[in-house]
Automatic annotation (TrEMBL):
This is 28S rRNA (cytosine-C(5))-methyltransferase. The lineage of its organism: Eukaryota, Metazoa, Chordata, Craniata, Vertebrata. GO terms for molecular function: RNA binding; rRNA (cytosine-C5-)-methyltransferase activity. InterPro entries: MeTrfase_RsmB-F_NOP2_cat, MeTrfase_RsmB-F_NOP2_dom, NSUN5_7_fdxn-like, NSUN5_RCM1_N, RCMT, SAM-dependent_MTases_sf. Residues 431-463 are annotated as: Disordered.
Length: 487
């Protein structure tokens, strides 16, 4: 029983935020550290499922009150683990409920339309802090068309409900789990299915016609939007979902140079790109920071996607939420990550012909998101932010002027994983000279009040409008000065 008592005690302390799992396991003095750690990690992974089963089986009712966290570790081992391994006074209570617990597990699987335990965990992942995450499916236009895919699913007995008009419609749709689907309202070629839909064995998926990709992770390539035939770098590319999206956007014409440090991930990427029909890529197992911007090979690179390693704090994982390091451990990790993220974006901005650089993370930490962008803008005055996808509801945290040009994503606001995206654009020579003038002016302390033009100038690019209207602002300033001189 010591195993379960100790594990339950650690779950209590985790809820009180007294430390990370590993620390608490070592501090517990329990002799078989590995066994205890494994039991805790798995119980946490199954936590939402176990809580549901405990509730519906009414296990905690009755004269002998079993504490919740003790019930959780016992139910885990009974239903999903190796079976109850030790005795103790609670063992008989749990075993007396065995049939009921097993029946509730079976009922839950039927309700969630899944056949195995792993799918049950995935399908209930979203219930941690909001609606369930739908199953997003990107139609790979390198291999098929939206029309063909719609026809295919209709033939499979699915009802096509058209294009969603709001995120609310997607949330309402997510509550149903029938055989129906929608087209997404923000991302072209993205379909939305009920959360528990499983496509891993679907023939269109295995043939690379469909890519299973979260909606938020489709944003970087969509916003970078390289023209057909352009030269693009994917700086931290593996396993390659964004590379294959970029390839679809450039229609396999032009070149995508894709770098990654991790050999194994790069090998997986190679297989995935082959399956997706990508042919315009050149993969390199190389540190992006060592790729020379002066190399003639990259002279035509006009668009760069930087999706570097991050804390992953936007990913829905109950275990990670509960086991996240606390205090200084986490600060140190975030500092190291954001230092790399700054270096990677800075490096991208040094490529001589680059016009657009998109930066993304699946982190919800300001240190990895807005703070990185703010520093980059200060260090690279030749670049400005583009106000992307104005209809997107969740914007960058208000931590510097223009931060609203960035996008944030979350389960509750956008029905996606937690995500962050910023798009940098090189200033035009005219804009550059006016911004230099502005700088000189402020250096000479010209104390003239600038009216800020709030009207946003429509850009020729599809998903953006110009954010910091320094050009029109300075033009008006000049006009005002000329008028004063005349008077
Ligand atoms: N963009 C990928 C996708 O959509 O499939 C996911 C990229 S993942 C968030 C970050 C990747 O950066 C990891 O595969 C990691 O190996 C790679 N990485 C980390 N440091 C790197 C570096 N200095 N140069 C190149 N790749 C790096």
């Amino acid at each position: 029983m010591a195993l379960y008592q100790t594990a339950a005690g650690i779950l209590d302390r985790l809820q009180q935020k007294e430390g990370a799992v590993k620390t608490l396991v070592y501090d517990s003095g329990y002799k078989n550290v590995r066994q205890l750690y494994a039991l805790l990690c798995e119980t946490l992974r199954y936590s939402t499922v176990i809580e549901e089963i405990i509730k519906s089986s009414e296990l905690l009712r009755g004269p002998k009150k079993l504490p919740m966290n003790l019930a959780k570790v016992l139910v885990y081992d009974l239903l999903f683990g190796k079976g109850l391994q030790c005795g103790g006074r609670w063992k008989s209570t749990i075993l007396a409920h065995r049939a009921r617990l097993q029946a509730e597990l079976a009922k839950l699987k039927v309700k969630k339309k899944v056949s195995n335990n792993q799918d049950l965990v995935t399908s209930m992942g979203g219930s941690l802090d909001g609606p369930a995450l739908p199953r997003y499916v990107r139609v790979n236009t390198l291999k098929t068309s939206m029309d063909d895919v719609l026809t295919y699913f209709k033939r499979q007995g699915y009802t096509y409900l058209g294009k969603a008009r709001s995120i609310k419609e997607l949330i309402d749709f997510g509550q149903k789990s029938g055989k129906s689907f929608l087209q997404d309202l923000h991302i072209p070629n993205l379909l939305v299915f009920p959360p528990s839909t499983d496509f891993h064995k679907d023939s269109l998926y295995t043939a690379g016609h469909l890519i299973l990709q979260d909606k938020a992770s489709c944003l970087p390539a969509l916003l970078l939007d390289p023209p057909v035939g352009s030269c693009v770098i994917d700086a931290c590319a593996a396993p390659g979902n964004k590379t294959s999206h970029l390839a679809a956007i450039v229609q396999n014409k032009g070149k995508i140079f894709a770098f990654d440090l991790d050999t194994k991930r790069l090998a997986t990427m190679s297989t995935l790109l082959l399956r997706a029909g990508v042919t315009c890529q050149e993969l390199a197992n190389q540190d992006f920071l060592t790729v020379s911007p002066c190399d003639p090979k990259y002279q035509k690179v006009s668009h760069i996607l930087v999706d570097p390693s991050c804390s992953g704090s936007g990913m829905p994982d109950r275990m990670r939420v509960l086991t996240e390091e606390s205090g200084s451990d986490q600060d140190e990790r975030l500092q190291a990550l954001s230092a790399f993220q700054r270096r990677a974006v800075s490096h991208a901005l040094r490529f001589p012909s680059v016009q657009y650089v998109v930066y993304s993370t699946c982190s919800i930490h300001q240190q990895e998101d807005e703070d990185v962008v703010k520093d980059i803008l200060e260090q690279h005055p030749d670049f400005r932010l583009v106000n992307v996808l104005p209809m997107w509801p969740a914007r960058g945290l208000n931590t510097f002027p223009g931060s609203e040009c960035c996008l944030r994503a979350s389960l509750s606001e956008t029905l996606t994983n937690g995500f962050f995206v910023a798009l940098f654009q090189r200033r035009s020579p005219e804009e550059k000279s006016t911004s230099e003038e502005q700088k000189t002016a402020s250096l000479h302390q010209v104390n003239e009040e600038l009216e800020v033009d709030s009207s946003q100038v429509q850009s020729k690019r599809k998903y953006e409008c110009i954010s910091q209207n320094s050009v029109s602002c300075t033009k008006r300033k000049r006009k005002k000065k000329r008028k004063t001189d005349k008077d």
